[in-house]
Amino acid sequence: MIEVRNIRKSFGSLEVLKGIDLDIRKGEVVSIVGPSGAGKTTLLQIMGTLEKPDSGSVRVDGVAMESLSRKEMADFRNRRIGFVFQFHQLLPEFTALENVMIPAYIGHASTSEAKARAQELLDFMGLSDRASHKPNELSGGEKQRVAVARALVNHPSVVFADEPSGSLDTKNKGELHQLFFDLRDRFGQTFVIVTHDDELARLTDRTIHMKDGLITDDKNITL
User: Which residue ranges traverse the bilayer (predicted)?
Assistant: First the structure.
């Protein structure tokens, strides 16, 4: 699903990634862990096409990212990649259903198609009775589940999550962590998750440890 070869990235004089090689298989739930400043989020952003490496190559779902124009990359990102962040980033003026529909609209889906897909995801996540509520009427856990639904609305091949449970309490963390595996089993997505949560890292199929811009350990669990 993802092939990373000799990725290097610096910001000014600070070398953040120092030659990363990584393969992630389709259907894996992978966690990336390590101390602050290890380069985890930068690697996630490069794999997700939000940031360009200084050198090296990235292939996502068989497509070489460096071969795409800016517009082609934006289209690829919207259709094939989903993102979940620590803070839900829902638009406050729209309902939960409308927030989930937005990427589908950007991808030129019809209103009926976007609504049906968004409702399917909200139903799966136990939020069918919250679809017409705006973000300020939802709990923290509900907001983050809406954000996950939004990431999945275009049937992406891979979902990148950066500290997705960092702002949640223990109960909601557990529910969100289980949701990633339920979604993988139901829809077949690959999940790559940057986290400081040891419990989530233990649950994932594979844990990649980073330190000082390098991968120091890669623990695999057979699916």
Answer: none
Helix (H, G, I), strand (E, B) or coil at 218: strand
Q: What residues does each domain of the chain span?
A: 29-51+61-220
Name the residue among 217, 223, 183, 215 with its Cα closest to residue 84: 183
Instruction: Give the torsion sign (CA, 94, 99, 103, 104).
Output: negative
3-state SS, residue 132: coil
Rounded Cα distance between 67 and 58, Å, is 10
> Structurally, what CATH architecture does the domain formed by 29-51+61-220 represent?
3-Layer(aba) Sandwich (3.40)
What burial letters (b/e) apply to 13-34, b meaning 16+ CB within 10 Å? eeebbeebebebeeebbbbbbb
User: Greater confidence, 199 or 119?
Assistant: 119
Checking if the pLDDT of 116 tops 90, the result is yes
To which residue do tokens 């000014």 refer?
12
Convert the pLDDT of each residue in 149-165 to its tens digit: 999 898 899 999 998 87
